[in-house]
Write a structure and sequence with these properties.
This protein has 5 helices and no strands. The N and C termini lie far apart (33 Å). Helix 1 crosses helix 2. By secondary structure, it is an all-alpha fold.
């Protein structure tokens, strides 16, 4: 589906902050800075995939093709606007994906 790494509805910096907070909350012991950064990056990638999957699952089927076309050409802002227009409860979808990921990651 084109560039899957485009954030569909969440600002990259917010996801990175959330990922870093999760890694900190997991409380790994004795990790050097480089390993910690790699771990945060990995958690960020998985978190972004989870959020994007939730957004795609909430998108009306007739809008999926429109989104596929946008993924290759649109800015992050245009993608976010598209999702907001076509998913009335977008923030709820994102929040639920974040909470679900957190529970899974922390083992709650």
């Amino acid at each position: 589906m084109g560039n899957e790494n485009q954030g569909l509805g969440v600002a990259e910096e917010h996801l990175r902050e959330f990922a870093a907070a999760l890694v900190k909350e997991k409380d790994f012991k004795d990790l050097d800075q480089e390993t910690m950064e790699m771990l945060v990056s990995d958690v960020y990638d998985r978190l972004e995939e989870r959020v994007n999957a939730a957004i795609l699952a909430s998108l009306p089927p007739e809008k999926v093709e429109d989104l596929e076309k946008l993924l290759d050409t649109a800015s992050k802002e245009e993608l976010s606007d598209f999702c907001e227009r076509n998913i009335p409860n977008l923030q709820e979808v994102i929040t639920e994906a974040l909470i679900s990921f957190k529970q899974t990651y922390l083992g709650a």
